[in-house]
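[Automated response] Your request has been received and processed.

Submitted sequence:
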Amino acid sequence: MNNGFSTGEEDSRSNSDQICCLVDDNDRCRRPAGNASYSKRIQKTVAQRRLKLNIDSQARHTYICDYHKTMIQCARTKQRRPKDSEDDSHEAEMDSPEVDWVQLQVNTLKRYKKHYKVPTKPGFNKTQLAEAIQKHFKSLPVNEKEIVTYFIYMVKTNGNKLDQKNGMNSDSV
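Generated structure:
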């Protein structure tokens, strides 16, 4: 490309022998370029999302690799996510389903409170107890990978957590 005009030589080559035109966090990308071009719209998204991407001044084209294309598309969709209130603290809550704690029986809520030692003031009514338990429940750390792995293991071995507590194993049954 010369002064913004194509010489024809770049156009005759396929993108397969070109590498991505982007510099990612001060390192030139070495992935093969795809058919996506680094347009003004994409530059605007990169600037708004503060991605550490720049076009290499030595690049003779504006084609980017599929990796960076996907990265920019993901940043664009995160940017468009609707917000249901002014408070940003509810964003994490929207990712997981809500549990209606008030529908549980008071005895169930009390057992949860006792088991997890949830601190509450004496004399809480059902709604206040449900709110305290909901706050505690949302604060519990969850290792999703470990839980899913354990679940799959138990399904494959026809195991049951109750069997393990009673000293039984699925192999001995």
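Summary generated for your ticket: Residues 15 and 33 are 6 Å apart (CA to CA). The chain has eight helices and five strands.
If you did not submit this request, please reply to this message.
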